[in-house]
Design a protein that fits this description.
single chain, alpha+beta, Yope Regulator, Chain: A, five-stranded antiparallel sheet, 3 helices
């Protein structure tokens, strides 16, 4: 296992006030509130953090697309799909050689903030979807839009 990866896990644990694991495995998992965050080196030279997303339906899928839109922020989380587990994941990464205690914490914090944002939007989306369908029907019925 890469020594830089081990060092990164140690720094992150210390920064978060967590006990450093005696044995660091290829995938390290941390609990941040309700979120489980997994950390690994993938591909070689990149520190990857990811969390699983649930409650995804065709009605709220747009929330994931909104999160994955363009950004200049290097550690900005992106949504992907794990076909092996048939699950959506939120992930971000950074070069492991540039990782220090500040950038590691920033990476974890960004992942956690985006995760919370998505979960909040997913929880609200069921009501919003019903409201938006009704609003579209009303607009069409007023004659403002014609085909």
């Amino acid at each position: 296992m890469n020594k830089q990866y081990i060092k990164a896990i140690e720094m992150l644990c210390l920064k978060c006030g967590l006990e450093v694991p005696k044995k660091i495995s290829e995938i390290t998992s941390l609990k941040v509130g309700e979120q489980e965050c997994h950390i690994t080196e993938h591909p070689t030279g990149r520190l990857l953090m990811f969390s699983s997303l649930d409650q995804i339906t065709p009605q709220n899928f747009h929330i994931l697309l909104e999160v994955s839109i363009f950004s200049q922020e290097e550690k900005k989380p992106i949504v992907g799909f794990d076909s092996e587990k048939d699950a959506f994941v939120l992930w971000n990464h950074q070069p492991i050689v540039q990782a220090d205690c500040h950038t590691l914490y920033q990476q974890l914090e960004l992942l956690s903030q985006y995760y919370d944002y998505i979960q909040e939007k997913l929880n609200d989306s069921d009501l919003d979807y019903k409201d938006s369908v009704e609003a579209r029907k009303n607009l069409l019925n007023t004659g403002l839009f014609r085909v």
